[in-house]
Amino acid sequence: MKQYSEKEIWEMLVSVPDPEIPALSVLDLGIVREVVLTGEQTLIKITPTYSGCPAMKEIEENILKELQAQGIDNAVVETILSPPWTTDWMTEEGKEKLRKFGIAPPEGSSADKSVLFGEAKKVTCPYCQSRNTQMVSQFGSTACKSLYKCEDCLEPFDYFKCL
Amino acid sequence: MQNELVQYTLRLGDNALILGQRLTEWCGHGPILEQDIALSNMALDQLGQARMLLQYAAQLKGEGSTEDALAFFRQEGEFRNLLLLELENGDWGKTIARQFLFDTFNYFQYTALLQSEDETLRAIAQKAIKEVTYHAQWSAEWVIRLGDGTDESHKRIQEAVDSLWEWANEMFVADAVDELMLEKGIGVNLTEIHALWEEKVAQVLAMATLQMPAETWAQTGGKQGDHTESLGFLLAEMQSLPRTYPEAKW
Ligand SMILES: [Zn+2]
Asked: Quick one: residue B153, left, alpha or beta (phi over 0 = left, psi -120 to 50 = alpha)?
């Protein structure tokens, strides 16, 4: 088996998509936390976006499949909980890809999340860039998104919530 | 001490599992599509939290225990969830009232668990608090919307809050397990959480033009495994597949 460097492993992971938003790779999302090469093992540490995220199992399998395709057969994927994933780890490139995909990327830092009942956040429409938008529902098509609508172009859209 | 930590973790895990299971019953039955989706998403968050907690409980127990074995092959008397969470959903008002009373408690509970001396519970709390914050916000908004809504919605949500009050009281009754966990710096201080909870609940009920129920007794037993008949029916449905086909894979 060919020995790859840590950097080469990271580069391979660029082609592993998120199953729910295939426009994004697992690296864009920031869920790969660490690659550890011990010689005997290629350990990939990932962290879930939401604790109930149904895509985690598939992500794990897709990572293993991609590495196997590159001839790495000693890969192990480990799920770690701490520190917890935050939308702050999403790359700028990832946010741009989301916008092109029609999903408004998280705005601001996760630290400013309103506690208990705060005002709904103002979000930019990914289609016409208007700020004149309204939250329709806190919970959208998946747990990580809220449903919004644009008052200018009238399109409904998903907003990737800050976490 | 190890046994108390298992019990404490099971209580947290079973609360998430049983409430998650109850919420899934709304899937396809919500009053409007957005809220149907909201409850399904919250159910998913609860099940995700349940998995982390039951995996930890299984690891602490050892002897080959697994999260699946804990969820699907325990009997009614072995579950440690609060009675409030196993009660039938009732109408939309009752589901919202239960969610609000519990989410508010859970928000303060996980906030306190961020300081737990137990590393795994602390990591789980870091994950859960973000989700629970969104839940608490959502259910408080719904209490206000129903209370300050029509005569009918006002009447129903008030009745729901009144009827659930004695069940909600179980959240604050500490037993020997809670006391030991608090003493070790692992668990939360239920007296402190009760005060924070009362303040928040009173604030939301006032905004909803609802009456705070009078002080009453506490329905207890859930945390020790003494359940209402509702849990048996819930488990029969939840556990039927893995019990019928124990080796099923898909
Ligand atoms: Zn627009």
From this structure: alpha
